[in-house]
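Intended use. Records like the one below are meant for learning the mapping from a protein sequence to its folded structure. Do not use them to infer anything beyond what is encoded.
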Amino acid sequence: METYVKPQNKGTKQLFKNPVLEALSRTHIAVPLTVFFSYSAGLLYWSITHTSLSAGMTIGMFFLGLLVFTWVEYNIHRYIFHLSPTTQRRADFQYTMHGVHHEFPKDKTRLAMPPLLSITLATILLLVFRLILGDFVFSFLPGFLVGYAMYLSVHYMVHAYQPPRNFLKALWVNHAVHHYKDGEMVFGVSSPLWDYIYGTMGEKNKQERETATSTSL
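Structure written out for the chain above:
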């Protein structure tokens, strides 16, 4: 079975026959961004008012959470969203989770996780990380969730808007390579860091990104 489908420049696709499930699979980008930024602000407030963590430790854990998210983003995109469809069940799962986005990359209603899943995921992460990190979770998880919100923002912008004429154009170029040239490369959306570390940027792709960036300055 093939992993990728030919991208369509327009249109959308119904994933579920049930109209409620179909509606829940779509969202406006502002909804999850509001959820995650608000959730993060609440956790940071709790950290400041209900824990003994110093300001320096709080800031450090916040940025550690941000960094860890970029690693999680890369690995989920590479190994779960691009799961090899060796069986029909795996193929259906991969298409529902991510394949539909590759087929209709400009469908703005499916560029972010729906709000119900967003809130559920954030709460599960809070409970799990609380067991592992204790009070550190209240400064670590906000960084992690802000990292996710930044990922959503970048992902939405690279699909919805033309690239800027500055160094940020590299993010547009990277994701275009992933969608339209090689779906097995360039898995980082908010940052190319882990693509460089794990060798999935590719020399040709790096040259294209550097050329595009230099000509836009």
